[in-house]
Design a protein that fits this description.
- It is built from 10 helices and 5 strands; from the N terminus they run H-H-E-H-E-H-E-H-E-H-E-H-H-H-H.
- By secondary structure, the protein is of the alpha/beta class.
- It has a 5-stranded parallel sheet with strand order 2-1-3-4-5, with helices on both faces.
- Helix 1 crosses helix 7, helix 8 packs across helix 9 and helix 8 runs parallel beside helix 10.
- The longest helix is centred in the first third of the chain and has 21 residues.
- The N and C termini lie far apart (67 Å).
- The mean pLDDT is 95.
């Protein structure tokens, strides 16, 4: 059966330029409602991936996101949020985009069409069988991503592909295919819309679940977050106060002394056994 890109099919809406602002917003919102349901259907595959990542990460493995354009930017975004949120070193979750960091802001011509560059980019990090490669491609056909996944899988790495099309080449190349079928985009082919929203949701699910299983969350709190601004210091101080039953000022002192909620709580309990 021939591969059909649902994500590239014509929008279900027409004459967009003739619609009022309210009509445009209502239409886009109606389409966005479809995204969470599409992601929900992919949970069994996401579960398999997260389980595999945790097994490897406990042995020192890392996560690499790979993509081009919007997909690449979303991978880099998710990776960049892990250190401040969970206090993990940036080397644990890494985002790679076709064309390099320049492509985060400006298109890099033909970068995504190079089938060999993705694996070259990975080799710069000395990847091994403990690592996981997650390719993100709404179309499911991006050569930069698929080339990297094929080589990574051949070298024993865990591989997954996130796409908006069923039976996509990326799903065939990867060990785990995560197919989030959101249908045609509101503006035909604009995968920054529903596809991008769904990709962001899935990335959130993957890394948040992994970090929880890696012990970076206690109860429901980010006890390892970086104290990089006044808001986070205040939040952390309140966490310490709630956990230990101490006054706010004493909790803040402990937090700043030890550098994280977890370390502050552990140190206090150790000293007051």
């Amino acid at each position: 059966m021939a591969f059909v890109k649902i994500s590239e099919q014509s929008s279900l809406y027409n004459d967009l330029e003739k619609k009022s602002v309210r009509e445009l917003l209502e239409d886009i919102n109606a389409e966005d409602h479809k995204v969470a349901d599409a992601v929900q259907k992919a949970i069994p595959q996401i579960e398999k991936l997260v389980t595999g990542i945790v097994e490897r990460m406990k042995k020192g493995g890392r996560i690499f996101y790979m993509g081009a354009g919007t997909s690449g930017r979303l991978g880099v975004l998710d990776a960049s949020e892990i250190p401040p949120t969970f206090g993990m070193d940036p080397s644990w979750v890494i985002g790679l985009i076709a064309g390099g960091d320049t492509a985060l802001r400006n298109p890099v011509e033909n970068a995504e069409d190079d089938t060999e560059q993705g694996w070259k980019d990975l080799q710069a990090f000395n990847v091994n069988e403990k690592d996981t490669i997650i390719g993100i491609a709404a179309s499911g056909t991006t050569p930069y991503v698929i080339g990297a996944i094929k080589e990574a899988r051949a070298h024993g790495l865990l591989t997954a592909g996130i796409t908006s099309n069923p039976d996509a080449p990326i799903s065939e190349a990867a060990e785990i295919g995560i197919e989030m079928i959101v249908g045609p985009e509101y503006v035909t082919g604009s995968s920054r819309m529903k596809s991008g929203t769904g990709q962001k949701m899935i990335c959130n699910m993957i890394t948040t679940s992994v970090m929880i299983k890696m012990g970076r969350v206690k109860g429901n709190k980010m006890v390892n977050m970086q104290l990089s601004n006044a808001k986070l210091v205040d939040r952390g101080s309140r966490m310490v106060a709630e956990e230990l039953g101490l006054p706010y000022d004493e909790s803040k002192r402990l937090l700043l002394l030890h550098g994280s909620v977890k370390l502050a709580v552990d140190a206090y309990r150790s000293e007051n056994k």
